[in-house]
Amino acid sequence: MTGYIPTLAQADELHHKIAPSQVAYDLIHTHCVIIATITRQLVRRQNALFMRRCTLPKDAPELTGKCGGKGDLPASGRVTDSANGSAFGAYSGDDDVETNAINGANGGVDDTQSQANAGANSGAGDTGSRTNPAINDGAGDVSAHVTPAVLAQKRNNSNVLDGINATVPPTDGVSGGIVPPRLLDENLAVVGAMLHDIGTYLVLKHDGSDGEKLQFDGPNYILHGLRGYDWLLSQGVDESIAQFARNHTGVGLTRDQVVAQGLPLPPADYVPMNLEQEVVMVADKYNSKSIPPRFLTAEAYARKARRFGSDNERQWLDLVKKYGVPDIPALAKKFDMKLDE
Ligand SMILES: [Fe+2]
Predict the structure, then answer these.
(1) Measured between alpha carbons, how far is 298 from 316 in angstroms, rounded to an integer?
(2) Which of 124, 99, 106, 111 is nearest to 21 (CA)?
(3) C-alpha 207: how far from its chain's center?
(4) N or C: which end of the chain has fewer CB within 10 A?
C-alpha cells in the first residue's frame, strides 16, 4: 500500500477540494452518494448469500446460477476476482454523455447536456444534505419476506428477473444474486463508490459559475475515469481506491474496444480488478447524472445496453443475475428523483 484509504469524511473533503463550483458538487457528489448507497446494498446482499452458502439446497439458484430464464449464467459464470479484460464485455456508456461521446456525437450536444442546461441550477443545493444521511444509515436490515415494493419491482423488471426463484429472502432491498467466492469488503467498496466519479469534475465544459449552465465536455467525458484515477493518486490516495475511478465505465471497457472505437484513451483494459470494483461498476448503472438526475431500473439499463448490441445487453443481464436487483423504485422515491422503468 502506497497511499491512504480515505474515510467517508475524507472522501467528502476530496469532492470539495476538486469541485469547481457548488452546482457541480451538488450534481456529482449526490450521484456518488447514491452509487455508494446502492453499492452498500449490493455488497450486503453478496455477503448475506455467502453466509448462507453452506445451508442452501444444492440446486438453489443462488449456488447454481441456473435461474430458469433466458439469462442463465454460462457454466463458467462470471465470478472472478482478477483482471480479465474479456470477462466484462463491451463498453455501453455510463450515461448519455458517454454514450454520445463514444458514438461521435458532434461536440457532445446531447440529451444529457440539454437537460443539464435546463436544470443544473434548479436548487440542487439541498440535495446533498438530503442525501448525505443515506450513505451512513445502512442499518443492514434483512427483510424476512418479499415486500410489496419488491414484488412491484419484479413486475417492473419482469424480463430481467424472469425465472428467478431465489431461495434467500431479499437483503437490504436486493433480491436474487449468486453466492460470491468470498466476503466482500463493504468499506472499501463504499469509499470507492464515493470517489468513482471524482474525475467528472475535470471534464466539465461549463461549471455553472461562468454564466453558462453546468455542462459536461461530451467528447472528453470518456476520460473522466482515467483523470480521476490520476488525480486521486496525486492526492496521496491509495491505488486500491483510485482504481474504482479508473475501472467503472459501462460494463467494462477493454483495450480492444478502446482501439476499435478510436477512443481518446491510452490503449489498455479499463475493467474491474476485483469484486468490489465490479459492484461499483454495476451500481453506477442505476443512476444517471443527467439533469435532472434519474434512476434507471435494471430493465431500463438493459434497453440502453441493447443499443450497443446483444452482447452488451447479455453482459449486463449476467451482472444483474450475479448481483441481484436492488429496489430502485424505492431509492428513486427516497432520493426524490425520476425513474426510468
Ligand atoms: Fe457514476
Answers:
(1) 9
(2) 124
(3) 23
(4) N
Q: How far apart are CA 337 and CA 36, in angstroms?
A: 16
The pLDDT tens digits for 44-94 are 999 999 999 999 999 899 998 875 444 443 333 333 343 333 222 333 334
* Ligand 1 centroid distance, CA of 180 (Å): 24
CA 328, 332, 337 angle in degrees (round to 5)? Answer: 145
Distance 110 CA to ligand 1 centre (A): 18
255-266 pLDDT, tens digit per residue, is 999 999 999 999
Residue ranges per domain, the chain? 8-340
- What pTM did the predictor assign? 0.78
